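Newbie here. two chains, one complex. Structure please?
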Amino acid sequence: MRFLPLIWSGIRRMPGRTILMFLQISVAFALFGVLQGLKSGVEHLVAAARADLLIVHTRANFIFSPLPLGLLEPIRSVPGVKMVVPVELSGGTYQKPDQQVGIVAVSPEGDWLSAFTFTVAPEYDAALRNTRTGALVPEELAKKYGWKIGDHIPLMTRTTQLNGSTTWEFDVVGTFDDSDIGGGRDKILSNFSYYNEARQVGKNTVNHFNVAVSDPKLAVSVADEIDRRFANSSNETKSESLRELAQLQLQSIGDLNFLIRAIVGAVLVALLFATSTMMMQSIRERTAELAVLKTLGFTDRTVFLLILAEAAVVCVAAAALGLVLALLAFPFAGRFVPGISMPAVVIEIGLASAVFVALVSAGVPAILAARLRVAEALASR
Amino acid sequence: MNFLRQFIALLAMSLAGVPQRLGSVLTVIIGVACAVGVLVSMLAMGTGARNQEQANVRADGVVLSSVGSRPFSSTVPREEAAVIRDMPGIRRGSDGEPIVAFESFVGMEGRRRVTGTRVFFPLLGISESVLQYRPEMHFTSGRMFQRGLRELIASNTCVRQFSGFGIGERRSLPGGDWTIVGHFDQGVGEQCTVYADVDIVMSTFARNAYSIVSVLLRSPSDYDAFRAAVRANPTLHLEAKHETEVVQDAFKQLNGLLDFVSYFVGTIMAIGATLGAVNSLYSIVDARRRELATLRAIGFGSGAIVASILCESVLLALPGALVGAGLAWALFNGLSVSPFGYSFQLEVTRSLALTGVVWALAMGLFGGLLPALRAARVPVTTALRAT
């Protein structure tokens, strides 16, 4: 504790230089925080995605190729399966061709919500079950297009109805919220029975089944068992958990990890060089002062620690400021990845790196200071 | 004249002192090198992506899609597509038929060769006229798909990047297995492209509308007339756009992202490097206090001193810029990356290196400003008295 004033006076010795160095370190760590935040944030999102929710789709490697509805019962009979819900996906546009809205048709029966990442209020859930043409819309989408409960919304689609029309009408009966990052924001939930009966072609087929597993630990074996049951049939399936799908989706950013690492590396190298030069120069200028300290009885070890402490205080404080800046800037940089937030681990890594920078850059100067011979240092004046 | 002589003398003196102040000098150079290196490599991604996107785009190519839509959501009904063939200004192929390619997109899944990871890319159902629409396309092995058969042809990029694209290999898709029957090269373009017969794709997926229709004009100058004719035809609910424009629209988001990231990261690194330069130059100036005071005492003007320090700072930043741009070129030029499912090569071009140098000059100038002013303001008496 009694060394604090000494450390402080060392820092204040050249205020201009310390402030510049402080700013430089802050800037470097702000950049570090944002980049590392993006990288860890993505990993975090993957880890947070539900592992107990399986998507069963066709093994044929086309997107949007259908599975027959008849697979529902065989899937339900697989041990460990808690809930199976058929899901049909299609899309339409609202009023203008560039206002696209996804249409997710589900069977809202039993505990269907356990097989989804949606949050629906009980009264809206009931309304969807009781209204054939009912639809739940996300809060934001309702705001965007000014939809209110009771509104009648026509969507232009590519799917032809029995009556020859391609315009589908839905009644807004409530709102829902989706915690999943992958599904896109602009979509509505509707009744599969309505959609299936009204369409001209593709009846009794679905895009995929959502399966809730009773125990997350069973997810992998349940997925394997489902796929095994349909192996060598005309409808081979592939079951994957939401987490696996999130991994897949975010993998595309994977190549950028290399780039992020390269940039963070460049930043640290430049920073290390700048701080060590500064510390070196500072020690050179303070030769006489350090000699006086030693004359007063400070041991080599104390002087060594004093110099290290000085560097550590500056680096850690500057890094803390930089990481705060990164936190502030993060929403701006993270808007390209929906749902991302900066995990706390980034702050920890950042502060640890700051200590590392301090120790490496002040190491040699501190050793020089510790080895300083009083007589020589004072004589050179 | 006097100013110039003083300036040159001062600059020579500063540069002669470089070896003694190696630490500070290297700090400036390394800081600038890192900032420029990062900026140039990031921008190289954007340049690479843009060149890749526009690689096979033709000035006389026109794309028709439903009004206001993007390629993946566009629908062109068969009846409307048939009308297009008789529009004015369309080039005719060797067989005398107008060069019009009908396309229908379907999502398809592939596995990367090295990592085994899954990627999605479009399967393009297309009419045979694609061979005339894209004359740069030529088969390196195998043959063109046959009309009405479930056959696929793939660009050589697909064969390199993904597994399961060898000739004769079958891919399990709706309606049974589809066989790969040909590999082709598509000029400079490096994207993986898979084509199949448009009619069989549409019947397999129960579609009755094309996604887009591409047309080759007699010459780029026929564009306005063609566009006007499309607009004037009441049976068509389509809009015609230059191929360039469509491609730019499709990649707007990716390009925007790459540009934002490049300049965001580049700016922050430049600020850091400038701060480092300020600090180093301050310490250089401080170390020369007596020298500078003496010079002023014997009649050197402050203007010449400011100019010489600024010049020194810029001269230190320049090698940094060259090292940075050089490293970016040596490490990253030609490197293939595939972020967000697009793949392209980084291209470190001369104009990018120039951008880097301009940024370095700015860093040098801003970094040198304050220290130069301090150097010129050193009070002669105090500085001489100082030890």
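Moderator note: Chain A has a mean pLDDT of 85. Residues 53 and 380 of chain A are 75 Å apart (CA to CA). Thread marked as resolved.
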